[in-house]
Amino acid sequence: MRRLTLLFALVTASVWAQAPAKPQASTTQAAHAPDDTCTQCHSAMEGAIQQPALLIKDDVHTTAGLSCANCHGGDATAVEPDVSMSKAKGFIGKPKRADIPALCGKCHSDPGYMRRYRPQQRVDQLELYKTSIHGKKLASGDMNAATCVDCHSVHNIRAVKDANSPTHPLNIPATCGKCHSDAAKMKQYGIPTNQVDEYHTSVHWNAISKKGDLSAPNCVSCHGNHGAKPPDVESVSAVCGSCHVLFAQLYEKSVHQPIFGGGNGKGGCTVCHSNHAIHQPSTAMLTGDKAVCTPCHEAGTPGGNAAAEFAKGLNGLDAALKTSEATLKQAEYYGMEVSASQLEWNDGHESLIKARLALHSFDTAKVKKEVDIGLAIAARTKAAAEDALREKDQRRKGLALSALFIAITVAAIALVIRRLERTA
Amino acid sequence: MASNDCEGKCPDCPNGGTHENEGRRTILSWIAGGGALASVATFLYPVLKFINPPAVTEAAVNEASGGKVGDLKANSGKIIKFGNKPALLVKVAEGEFKAFSAVCTHLNCTVQYRDTTRQIWCACHNGTYDMSGRVVGGPPPAPLEEYTVNLRGDEVVITKKA
Amino acid sequence: MTTREWLEDRLGLAAIREVAGHKTVPVHSATHWYYFGGITLFLFGVQMMTGILLLFYYRPTVAEGFESVKFIMTRVEFGWLIRSIHSWSANLMIFMAFVHMFSVVFTHAYRPPRELTWASGIALLALLLVFGFSGYLLPWNQIAYFATKVGTDVAASTPLIGPTLGRLLRGGEDVGAATLTRFFALHVMVLPLATVGLVFLHVLLVQKNGMSTPPKLDPKTVRSMPFFPNFFLRELMVWYGALAVLGALAAIFPWELGEKADPFSSAPVGIRPEWYFLAEFYTLKLIPGHVGPIEGELLGLLGFALLGAGWALLPVWGVTKSGQARTRLTTGAGIFLIVYLAVFSVLGYYK
């Protein structure tokens, strides 16, 4: 009897309650699943239909106090399925793929609404999405194109900063790779599927995954996220230059800029550094088998000679600094005071880094200037270290004097003993 | 020791030592004694030098002097030697100092203070840090280590934070 | 009254001269072995002197230990010399103590009535080894830090008392600031006092019982020379020579400083203890993890303890009831020990 009354009360209440398309911001932050009739019934079910009710507790929207009905419509207070999931209550069931962006955008494109939850969050995701390749494909009826849920997951949507989120910097390459590494899926678009594999060999991924530098670029840093699209070839140096500022400045003024960038469509920075497989640059890029200069500048031509000169300068300075560093270390190891030279050595190392930077002007004079500064420092510090080591050896002089006196004394004692025992 | 009437034999010298012997022995003792003295002097010299306090009296590696308070203008910085690494001392305003490790966390270049932006800047790859050492731009992956600045009389002293 | 008479009245120097004048040293083919005890004593004196000098600047803290040694090496005039001599002399001293010990074995000088002289000598050797172990850590460099970690770990695996011993040695669960101050106290206070006391006893016993002669010789007919000045001057020559060698070693091969200990770094490759622990170190490495029901390391330690005790009791099992040395047995044991120590030290160094 009591149960019936309760049921009646619930049904009545549900009639009263307007299923709000946009709920009011709740004052309490629920960390657990919303305790409504949706999750009550669905968590008792089995199979795919149970999953959303289990996943929803991890959803960032749950934390904000939202529940199933906020996206799917219906009445989360009604016990009877006919009522809770009735069209009359605005129940939409599983949204069609084509409708998903708009469904999310209902809230996420409304600044007034978003302000109550995340005042700093942008509200232009839907607009950006419409400009993206994904958005355009979807609009043209290609249901393979990624929608919000393909990247953000569904029912357990997590904040980007959540390490378990598919949109966390550590997970983004895998998230993009879900489709872009799938040869079957990409076949119809005629685009390669090796981007993620290549990216995983890059310095950028190394910085994220090994060094834990989450600010290093992942896929979306260059391609955009909601407005995802390959950078236009003429904008490559601007994209790279957003972090590598000084390199971009030098490159923009260099002889290569008009050839690699602009209207020629060669891809700017990527001509030498590749796009996804961006590896630690080395002087092997300048000369030798793996040189990136040789396809255009054969050895012996002015360009080839310049490349050889760059390589010689950088390698020479690198080697000189390493020798100097090793000698300083050796001197320090023996307890010699070389800290001033070690301090100066840092400046030499800085010259090497600046010389590598100057290379992007493709001006031999500019590189030589830095290399020469560095070489002078390397020579000075090495000389200082050698002086210290020589001083260590110099100490033998004092020893010799002492040894001489000891020898005289020992010899005299020996004679004293001899005399003593001969007379005895 | 020498006696005038010993007739070739010296009563002081056991077993009939001669004067000639006696003379040699004296020379020998002199050499032995002199050698011993000289060698002891070569042992004592380093010891006395060792005891003498060295010019730099502190084995300070956790501390460096940043010069006099008045040496630096307000809104300017300078690089000082901190062990074998550079440190950056900045006089943010009159009477307000800040100090950081001057080793850029990106590729170990030496950073500098820029009075125009009131930020710390690395010339190598355009890394910028704010005046609490946090990265605000460019490639540095980590903030600069901040040091403690104290005034010892008129001297600015920088110490590593514990 | 001359100064000599004045002093004579007050100190009774004549009595001392009398004793010294009567002391003789037997002269035979093995006389030169008599010098090694004296060299060890002399090097101990060098250690006291240089150790005191190092105390002027050394600071036994984790923050300043390494830096203060570096300061001694770089800023203090002749600091490099004093520290290098201290390090070299320490190693030579332990080597000379070993030579002295084996010379006693091979000339069978442990025979009655010199059992206590032998036992006190073994105790002194043990003290010198602890000296070396504790002094090794004081510069707080990487190699010393990890060697100490390994060393105290071995001590901590001793049966029953192990965990307590480990904690006692380290002053906590791990090698750290507490270990450093502990080792410092041990190295500059406890051990020197104990060693000086034992050396006094050791020398007193030698004085009391006189110098031993090898069993083959008849002590009544063997030639002898006065201790003073004949033997003393010879010993003086040897000491002077040792000093020259020390100076040369210090100047030509200055003791390196290494890198400051970093407890959070992984152990550097090729970590090994001082040479006088190499044989034991390698033996422990060779013993399998488990021998029957007993843990391997434990077995090794047990073995070393038994071996050490047995060796200290040499005058008991190495001597017949009539007081004659069992020369074959003890010489054999001595040779076996030398071969074992030499071979295992070399293996321990290269493997």
SSE blueprint:
The complex is a heterotrimer of chains A (424), B (162) and C (351).
Chain A (H helix, E strand, L loop, with lengths): L1 H15 L20 H6 L8 H5 L4 H4 L5 H4 L8 H4 L15 H9 L2 H7 L7 H7 L1 H7 L8 H5 L19 H9 L2 H5 L7 H5 L3 H7 L9 H5 L12 H6 L3 H8 L4 H4 L9 H4 L28 H32 L5 H20 L5 H31 L1 H28 L1
Helix pairs in contact in A: 9-10, 21-22, 21-23, 22-23
Chain B lengths: L18 H33 L11 E6 L7 E7 L2 E9 L2 E6 L10 E3 L4 E4 L4 E3 L5 E3 L8 E7 L2 E6 L2
Antiparallel strand pairs in B: 1-10, 2-3, 3-4, 4-9, 5-6, 6-7, 7-8, 9-10
Chain C lengths: L2 H9 L1 H10 L1 E3 L8 H21 L9 H10 L4 H28 L8 H23 L4 H15 L5 H9 L6 H33 L14 E3 H26 L25 H9 L3 E2 L2 E2 H17 L1 H4 L9 H24 L1
Antiparallel strand pairs in C: 1-2, 3-4
Helix pairs in contact in C: 3-5, 3-10, 4-5, 5-6, 5-10, 6-7, 6-9, 7-8, 11-12, 11-14
What would you note in describing this structure?
The complex is a heterotrimer of chains A (424), B (162) and C (351). Chain A is mainly α. Chain A contains 24 helices and no strands. Mean pLDDT of chain B is 81; it is low at 1-17. A 6-stranded antiparallel sheet of chain B has the order 1-10-9-4-3-2, with no helix packed on it. Chain B is elongated, with a radius of gyration of 34 Å. Chain B folds into 2 domains: 14-51; 63-160, Rieske [2Fe-2S] iron-sulphur domain (Rieske Iron-sulfur Protein, 3-layer Sandwich), CATH 2.102.10. Chain C is an all-alpha fold and 351 residues long. Chain C has one domain (19-268): Up-down Bundle (Cytochrome Bc1 Complex, Chain C). Chain C is built from 14 helices and 4 strands. Chain C has a two-stranded antiparallel ribbon. In chain C, strands 3-4 form a two-stranded antiparallel ribbon. The interface between A and B is large, with 38 and 38 residues.
